[in-house]
Automatic annotation (TrEMBL):
UniProt cross-references to PANTHER family, sorted A to Z: AMINOTRANSFERASE, AMINOTRANSFERASE CLASS-III
Cofactor(s) needed by this chain: pyridoxal 5'-phosphate
UniProtKB keywords: Aminotransferase, Pyridoxal phosphate, Transferase
PROSITE patterns from the UniProt entry: AA_TRANSFER_CLASS_3
Protein name: Aspartate aminotransferase family protein
Family: Belongs to the class-III pyridoxal-phosphate-dependent aminotransferase family.
Transmembrane segments annotated in the record for this chain: none
Superkingdom to which the source organism belongs: Bacteria
InterPro entries given in the database record: Aminotrans_3, Aminotrans_3_PPA_site, PyrdxlP-dep_Trfase, PyrdxlP-dep_Trfase_major, PyrdxlP-dep_Trfase_small
NCBIfam families registered for this protein in UniProt: PRK07480.1
Organism: Shinella pollutisoli
SUPFAM superfamilies the record matches: PLP-dependent transferases
One term of GO molecular function: transaminase activity
Amino acid sequence: MSTSSAAAVSNLGALDAAHHLHPFSDMKKLNATGTRIIERGEGCHIFDNHGKRYLDGFAGLWCVNIGYGRGEIADAVVRQMNELPYYNTFFGTTTPPAVLLAQKIASHAGPAINRVFFTGSGSEANDTWFRMARVYWAAVGRPTKKAVIARRNGYHGSTVAGASLGGMKWMHEQGDLPIAGIHHIGQPYWYGEDGDLSPEDFGLKVARELEEKIDELGEDNVAAFVAEPIQGAGGVIVPPATYWPEIARICKARKILLVADEVICGFGRTGRWFGHQHFGVEPDLAPIAKGLSSGYLPIGGVMVSDRVGDVLVEEVGDFNHGFTYSGHPVCAAAALENLRIIEEERLVERVHDDIGPYLAEGFGSLVNHPIVGEIQQVGLMAAIQLAEDKASRRRFEDREKAGVTVRNHCLENGLVLRATGDRMLFSPPLVISHAEVDEMIDITKKGLDHAWAVLRA
Ligand SMILES: *Cc1c(COP(=O)(O)O)cnc(C)c1O
């Protein structure tokens, strides 16, 4: 316990319970068990207030891609704070970091994407494109094209539009969501949802739900389809190879905008700059956040293709939308430095050519474990699907318990993972070393062994 006395620590816990409402948390239960207090981070490790060290297999919340404790970012932030801590981008003004960041992002997107609209978060980015898509269609003389189709078990944030676009039933139940004009189709989760089809045929089948939904609503009424290239919070669900090309075909044929939510997949996580590049499709709009700044400061945005951007610029006039912190100069400076580091250390290439394949080798040693149903991985984004019976793909009756049992054992042994039901999720920093991958696989194996023993009993 380096920086805090025992008394101060127990006091922090009590103060947290008394005054701090946590996101996505049962506060009564949490206050009874107490929170973990994280004090420090270094590389791929975090340290709690008892000095216990954890390997962070989850990069914070899918975001600390360059690892903790990077002084270059701190320096860039201090420089910008001293130079200009804040100015807005509303009334005919801009700031150097906002301009340079927009240019830098555009340089890594495909040739069709050349503009960025900044926000403070991924949720705001989703609210932003939701309005932008409708404004676009109105501007090109198709004002009835307003409906948006999204997916069950997708995640697009916690604002009213974000949570509505998301397909989490337990979020919709609180606060009367989704709002009008948002419709959901199925997800490409072969392991969980298919009976007998091959993954390829299943991928086509769920993609064609989009076509059916467009026909049901009428093409003249549909503005856009949104999906994460790989569902993150839903369980790192990698769609079958047939899925994305079919989705892109349908969007094009039926003239609706394709929106790729790149909040997790963007900035190297999949071994490409953006997740849609992995699947070879080109979105019209793409919300970004998380890895944009490696989480060092809050910033998000929407990457806007020329198809939409040219209309916004040439036809719309004012887009009556924006945030006080759109293009915040200090957040933009942190993001710029983050992207400089990703470029200089060739982290995207590293994920694709080196550490991604190395992690795949490690998973190779787990795939025959008796409670592992399947392992899905793209770059440094992966899931282990737990199963009670591998051959029949039968899952544990208490899926929550299965996942939590593995997760808690890993945590006790110094590895942070996330469990979404009975899928164990991995999203380590892109700078994770080979030795740290070995450690992650080793602790995970012990967690699986432990869960096997417990769940059999
Ligand atoms: C995290 C996330 C969001 C929301 O971002 P916030 O910064 O938490 O508002 C949106 N979309 C996806 C795919 C995400 O993973």
